[in-house]
Amino acid sequence: MLDEKTPTYPPSDAFASTAHIDAATYEEMYAASIEDPEGFWGEHGKRIDWIKPYSIVKNTNFDFGNVSIKWYEDGTLNVAANCIDRHLEARGDQTAIIWEPDDPTEDALHISYRDLHREVCEMANVLKALGVGKGDRVVLYLPMIPEAAYAMLACARIGAIHSIVFAGFSADALGARINGCDAKVVITADGAPRGGRVTNLKDNVNQALLNVIHTCQSLVVRRTGQQVAWRSETDHWLHEMKETVSDDCPAEEIGAEDPLFILYTSGSTGQPKGVVHTSGGYLVYAAMTHQMTFDYHDGDVYWCTADVGWVTGHSYIVYGPLANGGTTVMFEGVPTYPDASRFWQVCEKHKVNQFYTAPTAIRALMGKGKEFVEKSDLSSLKTLGTVGEPINPEAWNWYNEVVGKGTCPIVDTWWQTETGGHLLTPLPGATATKPGSAMTPFFGIKPVVLEPESGKIIDDDPAEGVLCIADSWPAQMRTVWEDHPRFEATYFQQYKGYYFTGDGCRRDEDGHYWITGRVDDVINVSGHRMGTAEVESALVAHEAVSEAAVVGYPHDVKGQGIYAYVTLMSNKEPTDELRKELEVWVRSEIGPIAKPDLIQWAPGLPKTRSGKIMRRILRKIAENDYGSLGDTSTLAEPEVVDNLIENRMNR
Ligand code: 6R9
Fold it and tell me: Which residue of 194, 246, 619, 625 has the lowest C-beta tally within 10 Å?
């Protein structure tokens, strides 16, 4: 919390004077956006091109049982035409995408808007030749290569709905998502080089499709040239099919509320849910936040280090920057390969002006020492950003001093897969930032802090409680794919009339927001969202496991680590081999990011008399804070707790 010693970091006068938004403009525009949302968004909707202009701006209802969210509903547009065609005349030769490969000795690519147009048209025609049309689903399981952006935009061009599955997910997780949205085609590559190693994507697709009942063709990009097992009837090489199609593909007229993509994300219960985003409002908001949050200007080179498998890659590598006619860097590799100077070498090589990454990457690089940063010329940098989890002040200060040399505003952007774009963030030319705070709402956003139990609004500052949003914004998710009741139950049931974010927060005496982390059973591992329930169900699917409970615990680099309490079947011995086996098992069920960091053998789990696992206690033990366990009197067998404390893994 802010006290007298908390420093604030205002932008320099020079930065503020050329910024899109300075402090006075922010105040004025924010007030206007809240007083008259229809007028405000009616005006800002014009930043993109419409085929048929909208006459209705906002039609939204947060009442549980009748939740419905529509923006610009009678307008039509094409998202790909907005990201490509409309820039051709003025900037056809400008670089749209700079692609930086995993291996620094391989050449980077500079893809112009004209190149992008041709590639996307060809890919769109290939999809059409495979029978894909408006409203059909296409799953993308790809490395960070330009074809990932081409495939997204090709879907958008013909009105197909893409659903990207992060290439780090396992075959099982991929199969579940292909089934979940009934995809007609999966687009993949032979292999994905990352950090000097190769993931055999095509093999994973083959394995995933064994569990897919409907016919799903695959379109394969040749990236590594490795041998792959081919399913002759339903597999197609992209480079072969491209030879057979025209490089002209008209952009379909798409309704503002037609889905653009589905993205599966973890929640506190059950299987991941398919978050649905639609076309018009999403693009308006992604473009506007990209321009204003990063203070992006024409000609700037912007780099977001995320993967397109996450929402950050959707809004802030592809759709936002390209809708603005920008130059966006796509990076195939990892921050530490070949060594910890890679990010900074890429910044120097491509003269990056805005750099956007995750706190976990900053912490990992901070641990390697500043020599790795100081080898590179970072004088092109203007704005730095973070996303995905709270940033601790130590990492913030390192980012500010060692990377930004104290001259680059840092924007700590809070948002979610569900929100489509930034909701709480400083604006670099307007906000005097505080390390660790997401500061202020973006235009049109009405955050409220509620008492967790009563749901009452806390008006006075400072305030601490759960973070909800009181009114809709254009990029809000519209529904859960084919499960609107789940959408309403997850986000609108607990606190009536509000969108419930699942995050806790504090608002300080100046009215600035500090995210305190999830209040549900979602953990955040290296900025990746993980439902503890997902990891638990993977563990209990193993024949040796009778019961499992998973919680997060503080981890120096990852933010949170995964701590699993495992009860074995009575005929199984707790051995180190079995521990290894369970780690490998979870990797293959979900993916490497879900591998437990610590597994503790638990002869019993603390439960209430009604049989509910007391997670509060498990969290405390995992945090090595067992002195403050609180009330354990409602436990069925209080003695199991002593055993767990004695054998705790995080000391
Ligand atoms: C964009 C993205 C969403 C959850 C969110 C919150 C956490 C994201 C944050 C942050 C503190 C920030 N989160 N940004 N916490 N400060 N700047 O990350 O989407 O993967 O859906 O995760 O991440 O807990 O609820 P997603």
Answer: 246
Pocket test for ligand 1, best of 389, 431, 480, 525 (most atoms within 8 A of CB): 389
- Cβ–Cβ < 8 Å for 331, 303: yes
Q: From start to end of 29-184, where are the E strands?
A: 58-61, 68-71, 76-77, 95-100, 109-112, 137-141, 161-164
Q: What is the mean pLDDT of residues 10-24?
A: 98
- The model's pTM: 0.92
In this predicted structure, the answer to whether residue 122 has a pLDDT above a threshold of 70 is: yes
ipTM for the assembly: 1.00
Tens of pLDDT, residue by residue over 219-244, are 999 999 999 999 988 999 999 999 99
Q: How far apart are CA 630 and CA 110, in angstroms?
A: 58
Between vectors from CA 285 to CA 62 and to CA 181, what angle results, nearest 5°? Answer: 70
Neighbours of 43 (CB within 10 A): 13
Residue nearest to atom 6 of ligand 1 (CA): 389
- Give the tens place of pLDDT for each residue, 367-385: 899 999 999 999 999 999 9
Q: In angstroms, what CA-CA distances link 67 with 46, 70, 486, 491?
A: 26, 10, 11, 10
Here the tokens at position 150 are 């081409």
Residue whose CA is at the smallest distance from ligand 1 atom 17: 414
CA distance 353 to 346: 12
- Taking only the tens place, the pLDDT of each residue in 561-571 is 999 999 999 89
Ligand 1 center to residue 507 CA distance, Å? 17
Phi/psi for 546 (5° steps) reads -100, -35
